[in-house]
Amino acid sequence: MSETDRLERLIADECGECCESDVAERLESLEAYRDAIPDDAGTDRSALQTLSNETRYDIVYLLSAADRELCVCEINPLVDVSDSAISHALSDLHDAGLVTRRKDGTWRYYETTDRAAELVAALDATRGGE
Amino acid sequence: MSETDRLERLIADECGECCESDVAERLESLEAYRDAIPDDAGTDRSALQTLSNETRYDIVYLLSAADRELCVCEINPLVDVSDSAISHALSDLHDAGLVTRRKDGTWRYYETTDRAAELVAALDATRGGE
DNA sequence: TGAGTAGTTGAGCAACCATTCATATAATGG
DNA sequence: CCATTATATGAATGGTTGCTCAACTACTCA
Predict the structure, then answer these.
(1) Has residue B130 got a pLDDT over 60?
(2) What is the value of pTM for the model shown?
(3) Among positive and negative, which fits the CA dihedral B31, B36, B40, B41?
(4) In what order do the strands lie in the sheet with B70-71?
(5) Which of B14, B62, B69, B124 could lock B109 by a disulfide, CB 3.0 to 4.6 Å apart?
(6) Could you tell me the residue ranges of all domains in chain B?
(7) Residues 88-127, chain A: which have Cβ within 8 Å of B?
(8) pLDDT digits (tens, 9 = 90+) for A73-124
(9) For the stretch B7-22, what's the b/e string if a residue is b when 16 or more beta carbons lie within 10 angstroms of its beta carbon?
(10) Nearest C-alpha of chain B: how many angstroms from A7?
């Protein structure tokens, strides 16, 4: 039983009838949807993956609430893992394009990017919804 | 060396001066940022985590491009993993609140939720940015 | 230049994840 | 009912991830 067999039955169920060309047509329009998958999907996915971790999620929400850049030493007391884990987290967030980094002497400041802000906004706008 | 020592030095660096109460004040305002972390952060994170997987990300983009509900048998030929993996993926997406499910006889139809649509929009709006 | 501080990096390990295969459920048509 | 079809589920397993500890770099100031 091939994929197109199943499709054929689906179309017959939906439309009452189905000939070869109907299947081909449907398959073609389905395949067109694949073009909607972005070329740099990997970048998107790594942003999502990075944000899905508790430590990193919390840091982004903190930076977002602060609405200013925060020094690493300001973040440390707010998150309950080792300084090293926070440093790893910030580095991952930076790699994923979710925070910017600024150096000032020995201090290092981080701030959310637009991408992080948009994702946070999307989550906030749809919480408890549907 | 405690956390507050470092904060004290930071504030001294920033403001030229720093007394005990400055540290306490800063710490208090920092701690207030924690309130911005949503109560159901876990739900958010599982949505992000679910969407970060290639198979599930692709399915959401396909559903989003289709702009209509798709039958499982329409999704199968578009994604290069086993039917079982797609079924798992759809089930995970459903659990994460990213797709709705509708039964019609033996066919099962899936469609994106608002939450998925908002996340996709956030990604689309910030791609290649900053 | 050397002691001290802020933050980063890498290895290692336990926990978690994504896929597949095999099997199960549920609906449909003889 | 029985066979068939569409999809779901569970266990197994190879791969990935996130934390901590220890070592490291980079900057400052005396």
Answers:
(1) no
(2) 0.94
(3) negative
(4) B70-71, B107-112, B99-104
(5) B69
(6) 4-36, 41-127
(7) 97, 100, 105, 107, 113-115, 118-119, 121-127
(8) 999 999 999 999 999 999 999 999 999 999 999 999 999 999 999 999 999 9
(9) bbbbbeeeeeebeeeb
(10) 6
